[in-house]
Amino acid sequence: MKAAGRIGVVLAGYILAAGVASGAVALNAATQRGVDRSGGMSAFGDLVLFLGVFAVAAIPASSAGLYFLRGQGWFWSALAVLAPAIALTGLIASAIFLGSSGRATGSDSMIGVWSLYSVLRILAAPICAIVFLLAGIFAPKRPWRMALLFAATVEGAAFGAVVLGVLLRA
After folding, report:
1. Smallest Cα–Cα separation from 94: which of 61, 129, 64, 139?
2. 3-class DSSP assignment, residue 139
3. Are 135 and 79 contacting, i.e. CB atoms less than 8 angstroms apart?
4. What is the pLDDT of residue 159?
């Protein structure tokens, strides 16, 4: 298959995944008729639902794209360096979030400001873990595979630590 065909397959998969995610958001909104869905909280919830469903529905398209990139050593070398660095940011965000819980938050302290933003990074951790896991499965060389699987594990551990920390405090 030529490059244009490969790109078309991957793009079609992502468009289909976006359609599935949009349908999930619409179905969620339809099941909540009569419930006041106005405001930012509802919009943020819809965004999180869309991203979660999209991430799962895009697994086949992402897998195809990663398979097509197996012969591109520069891509895997760069990803093997970037993935652990990105995973480290998830670990730092989890530590900030867990370390600041119960203390002053908001603009009155620097750790409070960072803890507010750390939540967004923590919410991205499961998606990063899926991407790094898929990349680790498709990586053509062992060192790249190990770096990517390590990054997926760190992302999962960072998210799991926050979930466990929140559950234990509840």
Report:
1. 129
2. coil
3. yes
4. 95
Integer Cα distance of 77 and 39 in angstroms: 44
C-alpha–C-alpha distance, residues 63 and 130, integer Å: 11
Alpha-carbon gap, residue 42 to 104, rounded angstroms: 26
Residues 68-108 pLDDT 10s: 999 999 999 999 999 999 999 999 999 988 887 655 455 56
Please name which of 120, 128, 114 lies closest in space to residue 48, comparing C-alpha atoms.
120
Q: Tokens for 4?
A: 């244009």
Rounded Cα distance, 40 and 114, in Å: 21
What are 77's two structure tokens?
A: 């070398």
Q: What's the pLDDT at 72?
A: 94
pLDDT in tens, 141-158: 999 999 999 999 999 999
3-class DSSP state for residue 104?
Answer: coil
Rounded mean pLDDT of 98-123? 73
Distances (CA, A) of 108 to 96, 104, 115: 16, 7, 12
* Distance (Å, whole) CA 139 – CA 158: 23
Query: Which residues 6+ apart lie within 8 Å of 73 measured at CB?
Result: 140
Distance CA 96, CA 23 (A): 35
